[in-house]
Specification:
- This protein is 65% helix and 9% strand.
- The chain is mainly alpha-helical and 220 residues long.
- The protein has one domain.
- It has a two-stranded antiparallel ribbon. Strands 3-4 form a two-stranded antiparallel ribbon.
- β3 and β4 form a beta hairpin.
- α1 crosses α2, α1 runs parallel beside α7 and α3 packs antiparallel against α9.
- It is globular, with a radius of gyration of 17 Å.
């Protein structure tokens, strides 16, 4: 799952005008943003195994810190507390934002559960879960496309551009995400794990781009 995660961020931003789209994108992809860092540190591991599923060549055999159920719940709490301490909203709005952003972090695990084969640990060392829709490409790709389209619709309905950055910067971002998604699904596998992790770090740039664009849009 890739653009499906960003769909949750777009939908969440449409309901929380005081929370930036950049913050939402950071929340919904938080687990995948931490994952390449932990790969490079040697705390988690992955194998490149072409053919292991029809849509990804990656064997996620060891990622309990970021992608176990208990790990995802823990990172959700951490992110929510972070927003309570640093968020710009006040009072009930800040508490509501913390809860929603924490739920956004956890939504990552829920959506991954739909597409991963049974490699998502519940506890750090199992049991393992996953419905395996990556082995049914027509369903997996259609599901992500529908989610992404719905997220864009909700965000566009809730905001409007106040200048060219808010309009064309947004559309450039929204076009880039599916390009990255489809290239990872249908492109050649990465040559090695370090290259995979290094390229995945580029995703950290998506959140500030989204925050920049969002500042140039106003609530409807």
């Amino acid at each position: 799952m890739f653009v499906g995660h960003y769909a949750v961020g777009l939908a969440g931003r449409s309901k929380t005008p005081r929370i930036s789209l950049g913050t939402w994108f950071l929340a919904v992809q938080f687990l995948d943003l931490l994952w390449p860092v932990f790969l490079l540190l040697g705390w988690e591991h992955v194998r490149i195994a072409p053919g292991i599923t029809r849509l990804t060549p990656l064997d996620f055999y060891d990622y309990p810190i970021t992608h176990s159920l208990v790990g995802a719940l823990g990172w959700s709490v951490v992110f929510g507390i972070g927003y309570l301490l640093l968020g710009k909203a006040e009072g009930p709005a800040r508490r509501r934002g913390a809860i929603l952003l924490g739920a956004g972090v956890f939504s990552h695990w829920v959506l991954d559960f739909l597409v991963h084969r049974p490699d998502l640990p519940i506890l750090p060392r199992g049991p393992y879960a996953g419905l395996g829709l990556w082995n049914v490409p027509a369903v997996a790709l259609s599901l992500e496309a529908v989610l992404y389209g719905l997220g864009i619709f909700l965000y566009m309905r809730a905001t409007r551009a106040r200048d060219g950055i808010g309009r064309w910067g947004l559309w450039a971002l929204l076009a880039l995400l599916p390009i990255l998604w489809l290239s990872s699904a249908f492109g050649p596998p990465p040559p090695d794990v370090n290259t995979l992790a290094g390229s995945a770090l580029i995703l950290w740039l998506i959140a500030p781009w989204a925050a920049w664009v969002d500042r140039h849009r106003i609530a409807v």
